[in-house]
Fold each of these.
Amino acid sequence: MSKKIAIYPGTFDPVTFGHIDVIKRAASLFDEVIVSVAVSSPKKALFTVKERVGMLKNITSKFRNVGISSFNGLLVNYAKSKNASAIVRGLRAVSDFEYELQMALTNRKLNENITTVFLMPNEKYSYLNSTLVREIAAYGGDLSSFVPREIAKKLREKLK
Ligand code: COA
């Protein structure tokens, strides 16, 4: 049987405990999970793509079936180039649903063979996003509930 490969795309600026929770769940469901930083995101990022890839690599090194990359252009094309049959996205709350549904259906229209799979992170991370984390870091708040220690350190260094 062919390997089941999933892509988990996002901005990851920076990766949080919520993302890590989704990565862990995806890694238990698929043979291989490729966490991929979107290069062409319209968002103005704090960390460079290289820095975000580096942080993801560091954080996921304990998962033997998780790889890290970045991609440019259409997600479905990247997924196809990696022989992925699934796109993983986290659904934190009802407010995520409309946007995620639109993306999932558009991606399906673009490529019928790639299925979007939604995973719910632990409810203790359902309010979390990277913007909040960056804001807390900018004002010197305690990051220990939101990101691993090494990511908190990178944030402090970046915002010094
Ligand atoms: N835990 C914590 N935060 C989470 C989370 C989780 N489990 N899941 C999502 N988030 C947060 C992210 O931190 C991010 O926060 P921010 O906006 O404060 O930075 C926010 O939710 C958005 O999530 P993200 O996963 O980064 O998605 P995105 O909407 O920025 O990225 C892409 C969407 C990159 C996947 C999409 O634009 C894409 O595929 N682009 C490529 C071009 C393409 O193919 N376009 C057509 C798509 S139909």
Amino acid sequence: MNQLGEKLTSPLTGTVRVPGDKSISHRALLVAAIAAGSSRIEGLNTGEDVGATIAAVRALGSPCRMSKDRTQAQVEGCGYSGLTEAEDVIDAGNSGTTLRLVAGVCATIPGVSVLTGDESLRRRPMARIALPLRRLGATVDGRRGGELPPLIVRGGSLSGTALETEVASAQVKSALLLAALGAQGITSITEPSLSRDHTERLLEASGVVLGRSHRTVTVDGGQCPAPIELRVPGDISSAIFLLVAATLIPGSDLTVVDVGLNPTRCGALEVLQRMGARLDTEVLREEGGEPVGSVRARASNLQGVQIGGEQIPTLVDEIPALAIAAAHAEGETIVTGASELRVKESDRIAALVEGLGTLGAQARALPDGIVVEGPAAWSGGDIDERGDHRIALAFALAGVVSGRPVRIKRWETVNTSFPEFWDVVSQARGEHGGRADP
Ligand code: S3P
């Protein structure tokens, strides 16, 4: 404790890496499965979500050999015509990306695919892919007429058409792109604002010709991606927890290296800078069409800001971490235009308001966002992470920064994306050996 009775926490310093980008890992495996030939992918995310995509790729007939530590894969691509109907139900677990992107691939496979997931995924909206996949010519059914999983996709001969998505969702756009690639003729996909463009970049890097304007991507069906050799960059959505912690803990000076810096994913870095964070970002190379580099974060004093509009899709997964930053900032932070947060792995608006309240911070829900009033008088407490990895990680971050005891009800939830969280925090604290989970 210092003289003000604040608990001191160790600064985060040095250089760290975070596990491979989850979004790019899913796409690399699926593009490799539809490529003609053998692909090698390194640096894969080892979480359960990507595990579900590996299982799906195998179930559709594409052999996938994994290294023991599950970071490397060799995938024997079958081309679209080589993929086959799965023998059993495809279980996407907690992973919306797996279910939606694999549904897009299944739309091109003659035969029936049944896709389901865990309790959380079975509550998430699917009409957003069911309706446009039907317009391409697939038969899609599911609970409540295709609104909820399990989904039943009968694929086959698809014809390209002009599609408009109802939400700026990269999962939807990618599902449709993967289906359109196996369709006859030209498909255009227009979204309300630009969502992450990893699928476009990876397809282009493997020789597929796409037409791209700001909100529209066009593809001529029947193109077969070349096999890929890819080292997946670190996940900015995991790095953000370290970067926010380093910004908030006095004396910190931390650099996350080898991290993906795709501009359609980096909105949170811009927001933190607007809040007053001392962040230095450097793009050093390209991997599979993705900019990769380092981000240095130094301890800073933050101010509240407004976040909304077209920036939301570029930071949608980082809002839980930004909410913790906002609760340390001076003044009000207002997030709007983020109603998608209500249909993620949990209702993240409700989960954040509840958890912040438990830990002594002021926050209230908006229908499409959240208002956080800082700075908080932090206490410890018990958090129900609602089975949502990013909520668990956000409140673990709150505990790391405040030094108060925060107990997460089901810590194993972080296995979805970032099981290495404590190892990386320990490394940044200069501790030897890992740290036990809370
Ligand atoms: C993802 C896209 C985002 C994001 C999710 C991963 C992806 O979802 O929230 O964690 O890999 O395409 P939406 O595109 O549906 O918003």
